[in-house]
Amino acid sequence: MGQRKDFNPKCRKAPTIPKNAKKYNISDWNASAMHIHLYSLYTYPLRQGNEWCVIGGDFLLFVRAQSDVRAYRKAVNRKLQLDAMVMLNPLPCRRKDTFTDCGSSLVVADLQTLNVRLSLQGFTVYWKAHCKIGPKKCNVKMKRCNDKCGSKAYFSCDISWSMYDYYDFKSYIPFGWIGRPFHIVGYWNDMLGGTVISCKNK
Which of 21, 100, 109, 143 has the most CB atoms in a 10 Å sphere around its CB? Predict the structure, then answer.
C-alpha cells in the first residue's frame, strides 16, 4: 500500500470561471498599457459579477516577475522538497509513491513595475502540486551520511499556478461610480525535480 499523502487537503481553492460567465481573453493586448485596457473594460457596461478576463502573454510574465511572486515560488519549492523528505523515510525500498500539496498567498505588485501596480495593486496567487517520488534506493553509500549507507529517491512535481484579482475601483473616489467590477485570472505551470537523501535505510 502506498502513502499517497495530501499535505494540505483543506487549502483555499483558486476561483474557477463559471460556465455561464462571459470570458475575455486579453493575452494579446499591449502589456505596457494593460491598466488602460482594464480600465476601459471597467467603464464599459458589463454585467456585474459575471465577467472574467484571462490574462497572458507579456503581461502575465510581468506578473510572474513581481518580487513577492518570485519569493513565494521559491518558498513553495522549498516546501515541496520538505514534503519529499517526509515521504522518503517511511517509503519501502524500491517502492515509489505520490503526494499532493497546495496553498495560496496575497501578494502586492512592485512599485517599480508601474503598469502592474496600476492594473492589479494586490492580488492572490494559488498553487497546486502533484508529485511523484521513487523508486527508493536503499543501502547507498553517500558522503552526506559520512560515507555510511543511507537511502535516496528522485522526486518530481507538476505545479499549477493561478493568480486572481477582483477589479473594482469603488474605493478610489471619484472614479468608483462610473464602472462595474470584474474578475481577472491568469495561469501558468512550473516543474520541480530533485533528489532527497536520508541517512536511514528504512
Answer: 109
More confident residue, 158 or 116: 158
Round to whole Å and give the CA distance between 139 and 40. Answer: 64
User: What is the chain's Cα-based Rg?
Assistant: 22
The C-alpha cell at 92 is: 519501502
Give whole-number Cα distances, 182 to 40, 89, 104, 145, 153, in Å: 12, 47, 21, 55, 46
| Nine-digit cell string for 124 | 492572490
Closest CA to 54 of 76, 81, 22: 22
| pTM of this structure | 0.90
Give me 109's grid cell.
505588485
Fold annotation for 20-198: Beta-Lactamase (3.30.450)
d(CA 25, CA 20): 15
Identify the helix (H) or strand (E) that includes residue 104. Answer: strand 97-108
β-strands 148-167, 22-25 pairing: unpaired
Q: What is the C-alpha to C-alpha distance for residues 18 and 181, in angstroms, rounded to an integer?
A: 16
Please name the amino acid found at residue 164.
Answer: Y
